[in-house]
Sequence to fold (338 residues):
Amino acid sequence: MGLFTNFLKKFLKKLFKKKREIRLGLYGPPNGGKTTLANKITLDWIGEEMGKVSTIAHETREIQIKEQITIKSKGKELTFNLVDTPGIATKIDYEDFIKAGLKEKEAKKRAKEATKGVIDAIKWLDDMDTVVVILDSTKDPYSQVNITIIGNLEARKIPVLIVANKIDLKKSDVKKVQAAFPQYDVIGISAKYGNHINNFYEALFKVTNA
Amino acid sequence: MLTLQFIPYSEISHLSPDKRIQKLLKVVKEEKIVLLEGKLGSDEKSDLIRKTMEEIDDKFKGIEIEELDIDKKDKAFLEKIRTVFINLLMGSRRGLTIVGPASIIKEIKKDPDKIMLFTEDVKRKRKK
Fold:
């Protein structure tokens, strides 16, 4: 039933919204660098940042959208609406936020908003045309959160590009990410310092068939 | 005391996806670690995450989940076809899924044919 509904939705979308802009989603676990990458993209192409970044997890707790971003490379153009989503997690403990320096009330509020953010991020999966999954390349890529996100995108036939972020860090292991998801293009970048960002833009053209 | 509860696939196979998730979460919220025969589909896993988020409060902090494949990756082609048919007919009962409360399971590591559970020191935590 779910598969049929998805198929019908996609068919109707294609039929009536042929000229609709691409909705490009940034997905991944918390603190992988989704908002850092979103900021890099928007700074590079429209000259402004998209959201606040923090070392405390779950800084992005609401869906953020930046419309009409046009990127250019080798005479090609790609316009999309960029959707930065809250990190998807299986657990959220307000005590972790207290340990990170927040007051109890603030920590509980952050935890509550973060749980809502995860629910929203999952709900929005259906509305994406292409998704960039941003993983911290210093961490184990085989987590069930990563597998669940990518499995859901695969089931919905949404094109996926995997970014192995934080290559500027010593522990970064892009090859491990590639080995975990051999069926996808994996691009190693540092969203913070812009390392290999042009490879990422090139890969975006490829994954969106632009 | 750490409690493990084994749920055979036959116990959830007749349930709707919603009821399956409810059943798993109910056991996990009783501070037990579930050993489920078989694997959840990606839709079921995202539903499990969504429902977990709805249930999180000061006491329940969420879940840890991991899966173990029983199938050998290098098995013969005919054996692979057989597995696909069995899964189609009987659901994905191959493999093992571990779901537990995040307050008890600190981390689950897969290596890749064995699963290691790192638990919180519950006694010490409760004394705090």
User: Anything to note?
Assistant: Chain A touches chain B at residues 2, 88-94, 108, 111, 115-116, 118-119, 122, 125, 140, 142, 144-145, 147-148, 151-152, 154-155 (CB under 8 Å). The mean pLDDT of chain A is 92.
